[in-house]
Each structure stands twice: as C-alpha cells, then as structure tokens.
Design goal:
globular
Length: about 375
C-alpha cells in the first residue's frame, strides 16, 4: 500500500533545510536573545536574520515583522488590537463569510462587546469583489480583514484592489495570508496591505511559529503582555529555533516558487481531470483557475465526506473535508454553505492539497483509491440512483 500525503493545506512537512538550520539553536546556541552576553547576542543575531528573511519574502521592512505563535495569534492580535486602538474613532469592521475561524471568532467576540461587523457575502467561487468592500465602508469603519486565499477551496481574493480601496478611505486593511505566502507572490507594498498574517508550517517550516506584518506607523497594543520582546509588541522569550527554521523555509519557498508552482499546477490539473473523468456527479468548489496552485476541492454527491476520508485513510491517502481546525465538527463547511451549496452537497466535500514533493504516481494511486471509495459508498447510499 502506498502512503500519499494530500493534506498540505493543514500542514506541510518540515523541510530538511529548515530542520538543519534549527539544530544548532536546539543543541548549542541556547542563550536568551534578550540577554546581553555573547550567548544571548548569538541568539539575537539569528532572530534578526530570520526577521530579514521573512520581510524580504513579502516586500516588507524587517522592523515591520513581529514573530508570533502562529497565524491564529497574528489574526487575533490585529482584530482585537485594532478594536482597542481605534475604538474612539469607530466600531465597524468588515470581513467575509468565508474567513478562517481565527478571524471569525474574534469578530464575533467583538460583536458581544458592542462592535458592528459586516460579513460580506461571496459569489459561487467563494470570492468578494472590491466594489462590495467599498459599498460596505462607512464613516465608523476601522478595519477591513479579508483573507488572501481561502484555506478550503483555494480561491484567491482581489487583494491589491481591496487594499487600494481601503487606502483611499483611510481604513486599515489586514489579510490572513496563511495559505498564500510561499505559494503565490505576495508584496505588501505593491498590494496596499497594512497588516498580514502568516504561519511557518504552511510552507515547510516548523509548527507553532508565525509572523505578523504591521506597516510602519501603525501601532497595535500587545495581545500578550509581560516583557519587552519584539520591541514591546509581543511579550515572551522568543522561540529562537522555530524562528530560524521559519526564516530558512520562507526564503527557500520564495526562491523555488516558480518551479514549485509549475509542478503543483501539473499535478493539480492531473488530479482534477482524473476526478472529473472517472467519477460522475461531482462539483469543483472554488474558481477553476484563480485558485492556489496546490488546492483541489470537490463535492461528491450522494455520499458523506467523512466516509470518503475514512476509505482514503485506510488505503494510505491523507486528505481532509475542510479546515483542520474544525475537523472535529460534524457541521458542513461554513465556506461551502456561504458559496451557496446545500447541506447535503457540502457534506460530501473532500479537499486534496498538494506539495512539490508529490508525484504523478501518487496522484494516480489516490485517484484509484478515491474512485473505489466513491463506488463503494454510493452502492450503500439510499440517495444514489444506481
């Protein structure tokens, strides 16, 4: 039985290069980067090198990068911090109905505290238009937070145009780019982005480390207090080894992006064409071309996604039915429902996400397993007209 990992949107494998760069800071260079002595200075030097690597990858300045515990913390820092900083100016936030829960949940919490949140509807592909954003902006709008690319269906949003609109109306613009960084070109200056969240384990870095870009001149209150780390922007001793691994991983991801993207596009199209030619009554979720190069998401009618995943797993294929952060929920994907799918169709979704290390042989094996799984499950389904 072949082992095939097709859940890279949930997490990627730690690259050999990232691991090797981390090892000295796990074994030898153990100083606290806030300490004055040479041990601490060596650690500090490594942190600052990684800060430059992250900044260079997204077109930012090193001093605009804050290291965090991951994308969720970065999102929370922006949303809760903006609400606190600008509460005297306004109480209106704009987001979309298809955001990751790291954005939706803090927005819902702010609603309990008296803030107004507009959840923009999306089209059939899971996207919003710049015109929708502009129409929703009011005099008391303080933040627009819209994801760069959807974690479930892979659709890429018109970020640069949305950023331009926010700049025109003097509204802070944040994007959760966790799925995008390292996979598609991202430049915060060219795209008019004020704040951006990213996470290392989505581009072959370690888990538990992320970063937040905050444009120079924007001052957010610290979400975590208790020390002067990150220039008083995020208290707590830095995870030096993870930060170093993140710096290595993002530098490699950007340097190899063109070749990796072309390989993943070839594999993605092979997978999509195989599904559509071998399995009847399937629906591609998300835009066919304006999507992440590694994302494939289909609804397979008349069966449950959980059943598909179980069959895939028993045959060595790792996939998901949506966000890994909600894998314990039996509810259908909020993203697919927002895109207009019925509960029944949304329940039959499966997400297959690639990395550049996947092969054509693995794709063909996964297609064989998926086809057999669908045949078996539909034979047992009372809904399928055999």
């Amino acid at each position: 039985m072949m082992k095939v990992y097709l859940d890279n949107a949930a997490t990627t494998a730690l690259s050999k290069e990232a691991l090797e760069s981390m090892m000295p800071y796990l074994t030898q260079v153990h100083g606290n980067p806030s300490s004055f002595h040479s041990f601490g200075r060596n650690a500090r030097s490594a942190v600052e090198k990684a800060r430059e690597q992250v900044a260079n990858a997204i077109g930012a300045l090193p001093e605009e990068i804050i290291f965090t515990g991951g994308g969720t913390e970065s999102d929370n820092t922006v949303i809760m911090g903006t609400a606190q900083r600008l509460k005297d100016r306004g109480n209106h936030i704009i987001t979309t109905a298809v955001e990751h829960h790291a954005v939706l949940h803090p927005c819902e919490e702010l609603e309990k505290r008296g803030f107004e949140v507009t959840y923009l509807e999306v089209d059939e592909f899971g996207a919003v238009s710049p015109e929708q954003v502009e129409a929703a902006i009011k005099d008391n709008t303080i933040l627009v937070t819209i994801m760069f690319a959807n974690n479930e269906v892979g659709t890429i949003m018109p970020i640069a145009q949305i950023g331009e609109i926010c700049r025109k109306h003097n509204v802070w613009f944040h994007t959760d780019a966790v799925q995008a960084v390292g996979h598609v070109p991202v430049n915060v200056k060219e795209m008019n982005i004020d704040m951006l969240s990213l996470s290392a384990h989505k581009f072959h870095g370690p888990k538990g480390i992320g970063a937040l870009y905050v444009k120079k001149g924007i001052r957010l209150p610290s979400l975590i207090m208790g020390g002067a780390q990150e220039k008083n922007r995020r208290a707590g001793t830095e995870n030096v080894a993870a930060i170093v691994g993140m710096g290595t991983a993002i530098e490699l991801a950007v340097a190899n992006m063109e070749n990796s993207t072309q390989k993943m596009l070839t594999l993605r199209d092979r997978l999509m064409n195989g599904i559509e030619s071998r399995i009847s009554e399937v629906k591609l979720n998300g835009h066919r071309t304006n999507r992440l190069p590694n994302n494939v998401n289909y609804s397979i009618k008349y069966i449950e996604g959980e059943g598909i995943l179980l069959h895939l797993d028993l045959n060595g294929v790792a996939a998901s039915s949506g966000s890994a952060c909600t894998s314990g929920s039996l509810d259908p994907s909020h993203v697919l429902l927002a895109m207009g799918l019925t509960h029944e169709v949304a329940h039959g979704s499966v997400r297959l996400t690639l990395s550049e290390s996947n092969t054509e042989e693995e794709i063909d094996y996964a297609l064989n397993v998926l086809e057999k799984a669908v045949t078996t499950l539909r034979a047992m389904s009372p809904l399928y007209n055999k």
